[in-house]
Specification:
Blueprint: E1 27-36, E2 44-53, E3 56-62, H1 63-70, E4 76-79, E5 84-87, E6 89-94, H2 110-123, H3 127-143, E7 146-151, H4 157-167, E8 170-173, H5 186-189, H6 193-207, H7 210-213, E9 215-217, E10 219-221, H8 229-242, E11 246-250, H9 254-264, H10 270-276, E12 284-288, H11 294-303, E13 306-309, H12 311-317, H13 323-328, E14 333-335, H14 340-343, H15 348-367, H16 377-384, H17 386-391, E15 409-412, H18 425-431, E16 438-443, E17 446-450, E18 453-454, H19 459-477
Parallel strand pairs: 1-4, 1-5, 6-7, 7-8, 8-9, 10-11, 11-12, 12-13, 13-14
Antiparallel strand pairs: 1-2, 2-3, 5-15, 15-16, 16-17, 17-18
Helix pairs in contact: 2-19, 3-4, 3-19, 6-8, 15-16, 16-18
Length: about 500
Amino acid sequence: MLNSRALAAHRDTTLPGATMETKIAEVTVLHNAVIVTMDSENRVFRNGGIVVVKDRIQGIDQSAKILENFGAIADHIIDLHGQIILPGFINTHVHTSQQLGRGIADDVDLVTWLHDRIWPYESNMTEADSYLSTLLCGIELIHSGVTCFAEAGGQHVSGMARAVELLGMRACLAESIMDCGQGLPESWAKRTADDCIKSQKDLYKEYNNSADGRIRIWLGIRQIMNSTDDLLLATRDAAKDLCTGIHMHVAEIPYENQLVKDTREVDHGTVTYLEKIGFLQKNLLAAHTVWVNDAEISFLSKAGVKVSHCPAAAMRMLGFAPVKEMITAGICVSLGTDGAPSNNRMSIVDEMYLASLINKGREVFANGTTDPTALPAEMVLKMATIDGAKSVMWDNEIGSLEMGKKADLIIIDPSSWSMVPIHDCISSLVYCMRSENITCVMCNGQWIMKGRKILTMDEADIISQAKHASSALLNRAGIKIRPRMNVL
């Protein structure tokens, strides 16, 4: 628990469950901490201090020097007693508007997952549903130390934006965009490429750089199977004009590659075709990217495309992504959870653990030999922090703890049964830490969680509302979950 002065609080009665406690003193000093900076020199301060002035880091050094230089002017001086400070984690692929659909699509293939569960669910969402779903998702993200996320494409971005503003997080929001394909709900099937581009430009105009600069609007492409060439090329050009990113699911399953080969006359699949039409650019965040060959890895690397690796979702229905090969080729690979219906757990802490184990195990499967050094702990930690920031094109301000960067940080209490004893700090953060070890989260210089309690809303109220909203939404969508066992 932090021993800081009481924060000024106010209630925003226009939003459900809001109890905003976000005003922070001008100068805050955190000291007597292990600080893992994730900077270019990989500095770790065993007894470090950090100074936050408004929304930025204005000092980072040994505790003694920080106290000497800033102690007299600090409004808050907080002794962390050896706890660990990390940059806030960055989740580079999550569907926040799918949170109310947790558990509706377990143990099914991807096409069934989309056509029979997710599309009926999403097409029946209201803006209020999207808002509440994003709040619920945000609660789980914050508890796992996430301060910034990249929305993978969902419904009612306006609802997402309202939720992100209240949560106090940072986000790159994108609409789910499709203009063709089988199985689409009727209302979606009528959209043209022009409609899709106009909708996103309107969202960009209204919400980009809102919420004190914490929200950025990206362009979305759900997947190549639901995109005409007109949409792909118009999206590429619009993103260039707006100086923003594109978030797209890429090469998820063999069926996708085969369909591209059959209908678009290329010799392999999605990445090969995107390279052919000039879609691969450094502002593209490619999610999953499981079924790619060596030539396509080279295409991605040369274009500067970023990849979001989602270990749990990949193992559930997609397969082994060639993460080691992509990193070796110089591709920036980060971590995502995907949405609740394809993972169920929105914990980037879990994804770090899984990423290392899965990619070590893949070496046995692919090559018949073990490689315990595949994706070591320090690389996984980079994927969740600075490489995540690079993936969302925000690394000039977040992803590492450095002078002048935004004050996005988390505090980890390692003194629990899950982490004691610590012989190697970096190893323990990846292989031992649980979400429960994360006690405090700061984003943009404001505490959004302290003592494991989220300060920006009433969690219990949001959870209660989510239960009712989810049931009503599934009823509208006609989705029925059959009991798996003999329920009496």
